[in-house]
Backbone:
């Protein structure tokens, strides 16, 4: 048998997953190096050993050379790498540091971005949470996005991302090709829950764990093998795009020093295999994609129902995808709601598809008729302008292992746009979206990606006939929930949904949605508040969840929460496709965003619903009292200097600020913020201090702060 993965082509994004060439792959990575000087491992030999054990990717923390990429490619491995720069320093306060990083990264992308084994460029790794707070989260995110955009311009076919971690969950760049996270959770249930959360933080794009491991010095080699095994299972079952084990070898080097106080390696310092590598070598070679390792306990028979009216132009692509679904027990039905075009002829090209014609009665009547004709225990609806992913039914079926689930659905993603206007519509507001009450629990699932258990369908009474073109799915989901069923969200169960091709068609659609909202208001007045639908959950719109100027970050006491969540005023929309992100498209997108709520609200009002509200959105703006700000720094022992200073200040009468405050401690009207920065040498760090105080009252505060710093073992530098 040959080396796995050889000759498969470049790594690329495929919806919520990754692919090489024509095949979808689960990324099975391991980190490699950096190694102590003079103790380099033979790359070619070690890379071949990784491939024999089933890995198909390797992450390095230095610039990959051409020889390394050649060796990795010969073994069928893709490389995730970057160019080290000063991301551990204040690169916002010192712009030259960011400029140096930009030069190094773009140079790497230009020189080697076209190499087929170079799978992904990671522009930085874990900018520390205290440093992000010090520089300003929005400014840091924007700086990372600048790096990503510049690298993409030099190497358009190279995937680019930032390797984030839970303490700066809110920092996710909005223009990365995938969401990359380093996660160290040693409890299985917590890991599974956080992977589900990441699927929603990522919006439409794939999630890759770029570091996960366990230290064998503290936990033992057998425990490492057990944890890595269930971690792999959790990643596969969560439907994320891949994971990366930290690290290949116990030989490790950081900050100019050899690391001897932990051992995360799959191999020991003498290169012998630990039990975890032996176990991986038995399991990984048989896993190419999720479907090789994830199963449905008892695959229920599913009926795919596609309702159409004069949709022949797109129906062929929909049926082509539907008949190629990879699921053991399903059927496809087309319910033609009085079409006058070539719908019947298009359907006739697919011998496996059942066809039913009815006189035009509306979308709800067509969906009810499809349920009557369906043979399956699960009825899965999609639309004629959608193309279900090959594994769509597989991921939906898994949710029905829970007997409480009455309906389930997943995301609907726009395919590659065929024109500038189509690209604008794909990023414009108002697209069919799921509404989530939790990471895996929904309040609403759009009809283009909606499945339902037959018992739940019957208890809810089916779809209501008055909803002839839209709104039926909202009404139906509310009634399924009222009947006592749960609605499950399956983040990997995707359909490709081709939105309207022109802005005029898009605005006509929004007008139809407005008329449907009037019907919803008539049927469910209690669900409306201030003339809008009152969702209990969060409306997801495909964009990446990340901080903006109005976001509220829960840093924890003194900014030390390990998982720092974000509360935002609204979900970000997906951005324009890279090839269409030009001035004209941005102008049209702003116009669409302005017109959409007005068109929708006006037609809702015309149809008898509540009158529109066109006032500007308002939010509270908090302004500090007038204060002077000073910055100075101290030198102290690593890694405890910053925490020692904070402890000393608390003992001196300073008290913690709130969990959402960027300031850490306060005493009277004075506030202080700190940051830990690298110093020359491993044994010391620089502690930056930012002090705010009322004018004229700083001298006494500074004197007290310096005295506390000296007592904490720190030396003033400036």
Residues:
């Amino acid at each position: 048998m040959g080396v796995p993965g050889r000759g498969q082509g470049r790594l690329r994004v495929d919806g919520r997953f990754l692919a090489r060439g024509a095949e979808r792959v689960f990324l099975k990575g391991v980190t490699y190096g950096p190694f102590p000087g003079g103790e380099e491992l033979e790359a070619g030999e070690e890379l071949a050993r990784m491939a024999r054990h089933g890995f198909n990717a390797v992450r390095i923390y230095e610039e990959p050379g051409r020889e390394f990429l050649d060796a990795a490619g010969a073994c069928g491995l893709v490389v995730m790498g970057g160019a080290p720069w000063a991301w551990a320093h204040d690169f916002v306060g010192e712009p030259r540091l960011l400029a140096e990083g930009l030069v190094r990264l773009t140079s790497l992308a230009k020189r080697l971005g076209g190499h087929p084994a170079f799978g992904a460029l990671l522009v930085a790794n874990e900018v520390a949470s205290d440093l992000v707070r010090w520089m300003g989260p929005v400014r840091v995110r924007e700086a990372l996005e600048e790096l990503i955009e510049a690298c993409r311009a030099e190497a358009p076919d190279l995937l680019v991302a930032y390797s984030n971690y839970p303490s700066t969950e809110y920092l996710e760049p909005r223009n990365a090709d995938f969401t990359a996270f380093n996660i160290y959770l040693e409890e299985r249930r917590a890991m599974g829950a956080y992977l589900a959360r990441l699927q929603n933080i990522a919006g439409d794009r794939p999630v890759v764990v770029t570091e996960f491991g366990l230290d064998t010095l503290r936990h033992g080699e057998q425990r490492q093998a057990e944890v890595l095994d269930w971690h792999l299972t959790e990643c596969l079952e969560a439907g994320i795009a891949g994971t990366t084990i930290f690290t290949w070898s116990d030989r490790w080097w950081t900050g100019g020093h050899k690391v001897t106080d932990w051992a995360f390696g799959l191999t020991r310092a003498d290169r012998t295999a630990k039990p975890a590598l032996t176990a991986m070598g038995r399991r990984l070679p048989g896993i190419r994609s999720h479907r090789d390792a994830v199963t449905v306990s008892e695959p229920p028979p599913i009926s795919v129902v596609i309702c159409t009216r004069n949709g022949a132009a797109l129906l062929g692509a929909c049926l082509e995808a539907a008949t190629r679904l990879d699921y053991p027990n399903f059927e496809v039905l087309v319910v033609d709601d009085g079409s006058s075009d070539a719908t019947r002829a298009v359907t006739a090209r697919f011998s496996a598809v059942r066809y039913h014609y009815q006189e035009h009665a509306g979308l709800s009547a067509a969906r009810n008729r499809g349920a009557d004709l369906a043979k399956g225990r699960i009825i899965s609806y999609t639309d004629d302008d959608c193309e279900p992913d090959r594994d769509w039914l597989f991921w939906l079926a898994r949710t029905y292992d829970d007997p409480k689930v009455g309906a389930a659905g997943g995301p609907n993603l726009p395919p590659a746009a065929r024109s500038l206007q189509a690209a604008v519509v794909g990023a414009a507001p108002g697209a069919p979206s799921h509404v989530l009450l939790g990471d895996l629990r929904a309040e609403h699932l759009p009809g283009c990606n909606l499945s339902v258990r037959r018992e739940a369908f019957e208890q809810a009474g089916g779809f209501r006939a008055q909803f002839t073109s839209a709104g039926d799915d909202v009404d139906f989901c509310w009634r399924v929930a009222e009947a006592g069923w749960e609605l499950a969200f399956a983040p990997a169960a995707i359909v490709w949904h081709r939105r309207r091709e022109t802005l005029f068609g898009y605005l006509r659609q929004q007008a139809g949605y407005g008329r449907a909202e009037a019907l919803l208001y008539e049927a469910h007045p209690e669900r409306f508040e201030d003339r809008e639908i009152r969702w209990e959950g969060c409306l997801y719109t495909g964009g990446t969840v990340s901080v903006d100027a109005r976001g509220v970050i829960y840093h924890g006491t003194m900014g030390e929460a390990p998982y720092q969540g974000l509360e935002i005023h609204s979900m970000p929309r997906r951005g324009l496709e890279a090839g269409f992100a030009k001035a004209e498209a941005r102008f049209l997108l702003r116009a669409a965003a302005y017109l959409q709520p007005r068109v929708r609200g006006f037609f809702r009002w015309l149809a008898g619903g509540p009158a529109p509200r066109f006032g500007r959105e308002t939010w509270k703006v908090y302004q500090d009292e007038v204060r002077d700000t000073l910055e100075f720094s101290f030198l102290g022992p690593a890694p405890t200097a910053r925490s020692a200073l904070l402890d000393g200040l608390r003992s001196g009468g300073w008290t913690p600020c709130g969990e959402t405050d960027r300031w850490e401690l306060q005493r009277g009207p004075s506030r202080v913020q700190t940051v830990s920065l690298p110093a020359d040498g491993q044994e010391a760090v620089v502690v930056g201090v930012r002090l705010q105080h009322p004018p004229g009252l700083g001298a006494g505060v500074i004197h007290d702060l310096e005295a506390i710093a000296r007592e904490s073992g720190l030396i003033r530098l400036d």
